[in-house]
Model the fold of this input.
Amino acid sequence: MIVIDAVTKRYPDGTTAVDRLTLEIPDRSITVLVGPSGCGKTTTLRMINRMVDPSGGRILLDGHDIRERPVNALRRSMGYVIQHAGLFPHRTVIENIATVPRLLGWDRSRARARGLELMERVGLDTALAKRYPYQLSGGQQQRVGVARALAADPPVLLMDEPFSAVDPIVRKGLQDELLRIQADLGKTVVFVTHDIDEAIKLGDMVAVLREGGRLAQYAPPAELLSAPADEFVEDFLGADRGIRHLSFFGTEGLELTAEPIVAEDATTEQVRAHTIPQTPYVLVTDTEGRPRGWTHAADRAAGLPTELLPYGHAFTYGQDSLRAALDSAVLSPTGWAVAVDAEGRAIGVAAQETIAAAIRGAHATVGPRDSVRGVLA
Ligand SMILES: Nc1ncnc2c1ncn2[C@@H]1O[C@H](COP(=O)(O)OP(=O)(O)O)[C@@H](O)[C@H]1O
Ligand SMILES: [Mg+2]
Done:
């Protein structure tokens, strides 16, 4: 565990960058520091690996003041990733990744093998190993930056706005990759961002900082969304707080009905048998069971020509969140959401009212601390 204990940083010009910050950063989880520009996030991160010295307070790593450790040993136990990756421009990808292992005296072939293994782990084609950083996209460079930070398998990973400079689609890929890597490796990650959505998606714990380096709230993301500590946190979280909170509630247990589902080759009798009073529509699937669209049940049963209405999008039952289920009901012209299994086969449908009842139930029974990490829709 990393303990930041009443730490203050005043720069020589009198700027107070961090003001009596106290945080307990748990092992093997992702702790995010988030806040507006200039609120002391980078300064805090750089105090953890002693690139910046605190003016007051102390930082403990596994119970020991970090000032007791030789600074080189401390830094090698902490991978560091920054915006724009900060790669060495005159070294190839594989040389960049193998930097710390080589410093630690690994021989060339072992360092190279480790580099190739890490390229795969961060989702990079090993064919890129001999390229130079300028021959890579921004997203690929960030992946190299993450691989380099992981090279000597440090227990701690410090990441300073690592994904801020890439476009939203690439950023989403990098975030998903980080969550995947973290599920495998279980590092103690301290992640800095100014993007609250990124903080909510990635963080097991989120520290919201405000100007002057003061802590506004430290909580799991679901709790931030359901109970912001003050107006500053509420403003910083932005709009749709309630809807976003639904990402933390699963769809397992949501009541579905499979009744109004028919295959595209269903007979008129079958369509009639699958018509329910709650909706004039039936969901038509292909012969594999994948949803195709809604159609008017009575017209279909009467053998009249009918058209297929789009169903919006389906949600994967038990895997997607109530946010995804609600979104799929809102987008559906019939007001009913379509649930599919992992293979994309329709297993049932749910009315908006059913989803609303599930949302009320989730709020009533699941405290935010018990909820799981959000499956962001
Ligand atoms: N070396 C420095 N000398 C003086 N002031 C600094 C220095 N580095 C950062 N600051 C100031 O400290 C405050 C916090 O900076 P920083 O930690 O970089 O914030 P953030 O990463 O949250 O944007 C800002 O007001 C910044 O201008
Ligand atoms: Mg910064």
About this structure: Residues 367-377 have pLDDT under 50 and may be disordered. The longest helix spans residues 168-185.
